[in-house]
Amino acid sequence: MTVFGKQDMAVLVLREADDISTALRRALDTAPAEERPGLERALALTAEAGDVPDAELRGRWALRRMASAGYEGPARAVAGVKALRTAERGLSLLQAVNLSKDAEAVQDAEPEPGAR
Question: What three-state secondary structure class fits 103?
Fold first, then answer.
């Protein structure tokens, strides 16, 4: 479990990847041959999920919350911050602005639609 490092954050990142990886490794140790490829793939996906930085998880969460409020524009826009606070009524303005920064970084990292 990771508490966000930003002041007064109301969002918490729960990381279960280590526990899931341990369970998958145990299952893999005793798995019949036909189950091994699927378990190996699941183990690889769990490792990838565990490597995602907290800021990216916060940004993805913020974008999903903005979208749930009907907003699809730039995360750092005033309308984006407002949508985030509409979706999550308990967020302060400072919290919403900080989350919108994380969301903007996620948006900037995504390829443009139709780009290769």
Answer: helix
CB 57 within 8 A of CB 65: no
**Beta-carbon count within 10 A of 102 CB:** 24
The tokens 């990292």 sit on which residue?
109
> What is the length of the chain?
116
Q: pLDDT value at position 112?
A: 59
3-state secondary structure of 2: strand
Sign, Cα dihedral of 110, 111, 114, 116: negative
Degrees, nearest 5: CA angle 93-64-62:
30
Using an 8 Å Cβ cutoff, are 69 and 84 in contact?
A: yes
Give the global pTM: 0.69
